[in-house]
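Troubleshooting: if your tokenizer reports a length mismatch, compare your output against this known-good record of 368 residues.
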Amino acid sequence: MSDLLNDEYYMTLALDMAAKATGQTDINPVVGCVIVKGGRIVGLGAHLRRGEGHAEVHALRMAGADAEGSTVYVTLEPCSHYGKTPPCCERIIEAKAARVVVAATDPNPKVAGSGIARLRQQGIQVDVGLLEDRSQQMNEKFNAFITTGMPFVTLKTASTLDGKVASRTGHSQWVTGPEAREQVHLLRHQHQGIMAGIGTVVADDPLLTTRTAVDGLHPVRIIVDSRLTLPVNARVVADKSAQTIVLTTEAADKDKSRLLRAEGVEIVYCGPGPSVDLKAAMKQLAEREIGSVLLEGGGKLNGSMLDAELVHKVILYMAPKLIGGDESPQSFRFPGREFMDDAIALERLQVEMAGADIRITGYPVYRK
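Known-good structure output:
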């Protein structure tokens, strides 16, 4: 096997381990590490929880004395600064590794190439860029948050082939099949927050929690409610398995605010009204270190978030059904563009099946 194929084999293993931790590292990236010496894997590690040991630390502990003279494969540039844990590049230097293969540099301004530079200063060979695209894709939420200071927003919606999210009577259970719904629960596990509009909450009274075949982490529930009409007995209030934040305006009912706060709901004011200032809302969430949000809104909230250019990724499930109805709710409602050339296009499209349903994934391109 060639050296490149060897490198790709071990880096793929590191990436696979990192991917398994998606959703459980808070605002931190997912990272995997494999340490190899003499053609033998001597250390494995993944970053599992914010504030705990990074992938390199776990792998170096496993490798022990075998780390000396080894090759370290890591999916993201080793950190070079003191945060909640000591810098990983210093641990690699202390272990006397001979070579480090890095998939992607760290976009965090506190690192941004300094970890690689530090290793090279100590005479360690560093090769960068192997399977970089996969590493970048895996950490797209972290990359966006750390460079923009705003949450990465994934808009998920499900509709019939004619674009309806419910019938003309409002009946919506279920548009898609069980395979698509299972995927949505996994998406919830992989985001720090899940956002819905008050219309969705009042109509469906959802729990907005994660229910998967294996235990999943519950994201923070984020409700957009300009006038604070959220019922105190709504399940997102009564259920205490996840935190609930309500984004509202200064014009909202202050008595209702006190009632909801007494139930443990956090009220966040975003502008004077009459509607929630969505850009201000995203900044407020970022200040609370919520770096990724799964938007499961109705047509109005989806449209408003797109119109404000706050959506980074769109996942659209389309069921092979036609339900019609001029008044049937649809996936997106916003004023619209005057010309087709001004439409919000989706790039980097992926189309796959989820049971009988079609899943379309793309990234919005906003015209300036």
